[in-house]
Amino acid sequence: MNIKLIAIGKTDNKNLIALIADYSKRLGFYIKFEFEVIPDLKKVKTYRKPNKKIRKESLF
After folding, report:
1. Phi/psi of residue 25, each to 5°?
2. Checking phi first, is residue 43 left (phi over 0); if not, alpha (psi -120 to 50) or beta?
3. Residues of the chain with pLDDT under 70
4. What b/e string do you get for 9-44 counting C-beta neighbours within 10 Å, with b at 16 or more?
5. pLDDT score of 15
6. pLDDT at position 22
7. pLDDT tens digit string along 9-26?
8. C-alpha 9: how far from its chain's center?
9. Range of the domain at 45
10. Domain CATH for 15
């Protein structure tokens, strides 16, 4: 079983960072656990949109 926890925005709270590290360590003994932080879009100066073009396909 894999668990991936995704958080929006980075925290500066040292206590919360320590708790997340402890939680990750404890879960690591039982299952594969991954913690990922994605940037908050309000604070990101440059945001790249994917260059993939979406095809519109007919359903009929």
Report:
1. -65, -45
2. alpha
3. 43-60
4. eeeeeeeeeeebeeeeeeeeeeeebeeeeeeeeeee
5. 94
6. 93
7. 888 889 988 998 998 899
8. 9
9. 1-60
10. 3.40.1280.10
Residue 15 CA from chain centroid, whole number:
20
Q: What is the pLDDT of residue 60?
A: 41
CB 33 within 8 A of CB 57: no
Give the chain's domain count. Answer: 1
Longest dimension (CA), the chain: 56
Compute the distance between CA of residue 35 and CA of residue 5 in angstroms, rounded to an integer.
5
Whether 38 and 5 have beta carbons less than 8 Å apart is answered as no
CA distance 60 to 56: 12
pLDDT in the model for residue 45: 64
